[in-house]
Amino acid sequence: MYTRRDAEFTEYTAARLGSLRRLAYLLCRDWNGADDLVQRAIIKLYVHWNRAQADGHADAYARVILVREFLSERRSGWARQVRLDAEPPDVPVHATDHDAALDVRSALAGLPPRQRTTLVLRFYCDLSVEQSAQALGCSAGTVKSQTAKGIEALRRALDTGTDRPAAARQTLRNHGHGEEARHG
Fold this sequence. Notes:
Blueprint: H1 4-28, H2 31-47, H3 49-55, H4 58-75, H5 77-81, H6 98-109, H7 113-124, H8 129-136, H9 140-160, H10 165-174, H11 178-183
């Protein structure tokens, strides 16, 4: 039977999955290992969901579980027994276009503070419209309009302000979600 607790947990994990994956990747430096780590952490979080939610710090609770799972894995014999230094598979590497990233940062810096803050919260911090509205102390409609205006201003700046607008626009589309877009 699907309970209210299950619905709240599902909503929470759906909203935080991206940030948990990025944190796990920063720890593991491997997307497959990060996915495994997040899966184990989510299972443990589900078991302790009532406690995590009651404290009002579910994000902190989830991060602690993730970090402890990572450290526990590193202390276990598995990490010492499995060698991952064999030849890497022959797969294409997605090169980071640093010039395009600089173009995006420059265009972002030229935005009004409210639009810049809204875009950073929405796309870098991966917050929902509602979470961004709460952080900014405004309505969800204001977040949506500031997001639309900010994206349009960035597009204009990238179309006219750089020699390489297509690469910069692609970087903007991938910003905050680039690794996820390539790795699921």
